[in-house]
Specification:
Low-confidence stretches: none
Strand order of the largest sheet: 2-1-3-4-5-11
Helix content: 40-55%
Radius of gyration: 26 Å
CATH topology of the largest domain: Rossmann fold
CATH architecture of the largest domain: 3-Layer(aba) Sandwich
Strand content: 15-25%
Order of helices and strands: HHHHEHEHEHEEHEHEHEHEEHEE
Distance between the termini: 67 Å
Number of domains: 3
Amino acid sequence: MEKKVALKDVAQHIGVSTALVSYVLNGKEKEARVGADMVKKIRKAAADLHYQPNLIAKSLKMGRTKTIGLIVADISNPFFSTIARIIEDEAKKHGYVVIFGSSDENAEKQLNLIDVFTTRLVDAFIITPAASTEAQIESIINRGIPVVLMDRFFPGLKADCVHINNFTAAGKAIKQLIKNNRRKIGMVAYDTKQSHMQDRKQGYKAVLKDNNIRFKKEWLIEASYKNIEKDVASKLKALLKPLQVDALFFATNSLAVAGLKEINRLGIKVPDDLAIISFDESDAFDFFYSPVTYVSQSLTDIGIETVKLVLNKLQNKTKKITDVIVEAKLMVRESCGSKS
């Protein structure tokens, strides 16, 4: 195995002190008043010898790694993969690297990721928390590691968060369906107590009530995250064969994709037989014969605001809790029964 080149090897190569090489390679040549020619000479020698700094040792010395740990529900979901890329690019502008992990909405897996990222000495966490993981988040905060929750939060937990108003956003979708003369409106959601999903369900029910539409419990389908395709298909079939609703609101894009497959299989026409609105966009929607109406969360704004909160915690050491609400818009297309 080839011996790793150390600072002293670079110093000996050009006949200067190790301290001088250290100043230059750590960007402190001005503080040490090192001449431009010597700076150039040292950097060339380091390149010629293929010198690589010991980042772990450097991080321990500086007390930071310039690394942020990002934990989302599922990095393969377009919502999370897109926002992860935005966060990665935004963090890079400030000299930070982002490492990723998927919890799969599993508390134990989330805890394992937190332990791994902590071992890697991340400077901060950005987490889309799985259900019932308040204690995990609180533990991170108590250790003095900055953490920002994204997309969802825990009402009783004092933690920085960036999210949309899910209650209002869901309400906009249902109002659009009612505007399009739909009165028997169903909803497909996840079977979870997480705040964002509860708010979407409550927003749905509230608008029905405001418009004198009596909610029927069979209209609300709650599917398991672990068996999306199978659960959505079986429960939708019970609602759609025979057709008991004239519209469906899907609480996530993954639920919508699974639902559209079953709707197609049953031969139901969108929007003639059934109007559709989804929460969040999906690439799959581009291949559906009726352009799908969806609630659009500004992923760029969410990503930028999240990184901004993290950097504020890291740089200013502030203990102030900040709750950032990003606006969501309804992108009206043909599937909801209206083009406007």
